[in-house]
């Protein structure tokens, strides 16, 4: 297909020069697209040996010193970090002892909504933990050190900054709390973002969301890697996985290039078969956040009203989060028999660490006896395969991404492949996959509205 060849050439140009035809930044000026550089830890690159060494040092300095990290951000400044946290730490991290956490801090997320109840709950939790640390820890009474990692590329996003101010204000005069602030934002010091300016004025440690890296690609830069560092996640293995995938994606044979194949199939499914919804259904609890991360990647990249020639196309697919096996008992009915407009994608872990055999705990109960004697990983895969077979038998498009193991390397491979596939599809559909003009519409309404409410409050 000549279109695929052309898209592949465009990816080659992007890799070598950062240029994506017709891509403009928010202010209408040409802007480079540099995410494909991030997997390469090299001198002079966005991720360099020095920057990785600094991140590791930063992570080590938090270890056995910082009690809790609050990661504040939204969109690309949150979703990738949640993926890394889930894969590295799992659901029970904050319930573990410091020793079980290897000395790394507890981690909380905030700023991804403007919800007074959950923000207050977090403040109450930290205040209580600080009181316990100072007044009830007989062996080691200490101030509770809280690191607020404030992440915003633009440096002023309402959701992030409002929570930042509320939490900071609530904790700053607490005698039991020691606050440290880390800013992750556009590093330009000449035209600083609000957050960068505050970081410079207050001497806060800061990390970069570099130019040319859109929010939804920031998991591979310091946005994701700062959180990786404070949880002991293997940064190098993660980037190595992404790098190996990038190398595979340089192949011009579609059967050897996973991103090209994935993009071509999805483009055909959309254009020829009217598949305009995309279900991402990982099998495994700690991968649900991959599906949530993917929502932004797909929606902001391909959901475009106009193509690069200003023709109205209204392109894109609506992303849907699903989790196997949970949503087999809720969504699958719709996937199996509803509108013929979906692509269902599965993610499977081939080999689980510490897989558990389902025991024959009640031998007298025949039905339970029948499901015993296999591992949970095996049962999970039987469920997934059965779902896929049923969908296929009813002309329902479905695909499978297999991860050999749930680890940093394989996660890097998977996420990078999805990012690169989106870039390919942008070229196939002739839409700019690297802007998000549609999010400005509500922002233009929201700013003045907030000021109106403020005026009424006076
Ligand atoms: O990092 P920032 O600038 O706070 O933006 C957060 C998110 O908001 C968006 O700009 C959409 O409103 C996303 O593209 C971005 O990831």
Automatic annotation (TrEMBL):
Protein EC: 5.3.1.9
Family: Belongs to the GPI family.
GO terms classed as biological process: gluconeogenesis; glucose 6-phosphate metabolic process; glycolytic process
Protein name: Glucose-6-phosphate isomerase
Xref: InterPro entries: G6P_Isomerase, SIS_dom_sf, SIS_PGI_1, SIS_PGI_2
Stretches assigned to coiled coil: none
Biochemical pathway: Carbohydrate degradation; glycolysis; D-glyceraldehyde 3-phosphate and glycerone phosphate from D-glucose: step 2/4
Gene3D superfamilies: Glucose-6-phosphate isomerase like protein, domain 1
Catalytic activity reported: alpha-D-glucose 6-phosphate = beta-D-fructose 6-phosphate
Taxonomic classification: Bacteria, Bacillati, Bacillota, Negativicutes, Selenomonadales
A UniProt-annotated Pfam family: PGI
Organism of origin: Pectinatus brassicae
